[in-house]
Amino acid sequence: MTGRVTLVGAGPGDPELLTFKAARAIARATVLLVDDLVGAEVLALANASARIVHVGKRGGCASTPQSFIEKLMLAEALKGEEVVRLKGGDPFMFGRGGEEAEHLRAHGVAVEVVGGITSGMAAAAALGAPLTHRDHAHGVIFVTGHARAGGESVHWPTLGAASAQGLTLVVYMGVSAVESLQAGLLQALPCSTPAAVVQHASLPQQRQVVCTLETLAAQVRDELIGSPAIVIVGNVLTGLASLATTSPLSQAA
After folding, report:
1. Catalytic pick from 71, 93, 173, 222?
2. What DSSP letter does each residue of 157-203 carry, written as one string?
3. What residues does each domain of the chain span?
4. pLDDT 10s digit of each residue in the chain, 253 long?
5. Cβ-count burial 156-165 (b if 16+ within 10 Å, e if not)
């Protein structure tokens, strides 16, 4: 009999941020295909007899080809396995879960999706900042700073213009291109616009920088902030930016 595949969001890293439904799916799986950013404490929930296959997937690093992952999921499901594709954050937020679900359904395999707390939301919560606010932002834009190979790069001036209308920008995989991000946004936003970067959101090794758009790239470089990290830009950070003027910009969690 054909098995089943469940796309599970493992959240930003802290195992306590898993949903109950995600924990149950992990525990019943016979095969787990796991991304790099899923920690050992989450994998400890798996059945001792389950087969765990690490399939990479981290921005800026060598990754397992997506086509191979999709073929492997399909092959295991057709054997009758209970397959869990375990992804950091949410499977449908820059996790390519949509492509995987389409591939499986096209071959007659049932797919269930278990959402997870995406790292953009976790980063804001770690800062103690909202993503929307009645006085500062009536919406939020989630965007990737990592362009698809051969595809068009993000047009930061356009996103800056949207942010100027009262939208918070949350940028995934943006630190490697932080200079172009900063330069583009400054074409539409004041240099005093609050900004922040959170690395390893929700984990013990979390680090963060609170600054302004004018100093964003320099702070990321000086504080050696790397991937995985979330960049947040917008007036929802106003209170944090004012605190940063009297305290070190780089803070431990």
Report:
1. 173
2. HHHHHHHHTTEEEEEES-GGGHHHHHHHHTTTS-TT-EEEEEESTTS
3. 4-114, 119-252
4. 678 999 999 999 999 999 999 999 999 999 999 998 899 999 999 999 999 999 976 555 557 899 999 999 999 999 999 999 999 999 999 989 999 999 999 999 999 999 999 999 999 999 999 999 998 999 999 999 976 665 668 899 999 999 999 999 999 999 999 999 999 999 999 999 999 999 999 999 999 999 999 999 999 999 999 999 999 999 999 877 554 543 333 444 4
5. beebbeebee
Question: Residues 6 or more apart from 130 whose CB is under 8 A from it?
Answer: 124, 137, 236
- State the catalytic residue, choosing from 35, 73, 87, 90: 35
CATH number of 4-114: 2.40.50.140, 3.40.1010.10, 2.60.40.10, 3.40.50.2300?
3.40.1010.10
73 assigned to active site = no
Annotation marks residue 1 as catalytic: no
- Tokens describing residue 124: 């804001």
Q: Return the structure tokens found at 156.
A: 């930061």
Active-site residue, selected from the candidate residues 14, 57, 73, 90: 57
Architecture of the structural domain at 119-252: 2-Layer Sandwich (3.30)
Q: What is the token pair recorded at 192? A: 């005093």
Q: Residue 236 in contact with residue 168, Cβ under 8 Å? A: yes
d(C-alpha 146, C-alpha 20), whole Å: 31
CB 174 within 8 A of CB 167: no
Is residue 57 part of the annotated active site? The answer reads yes
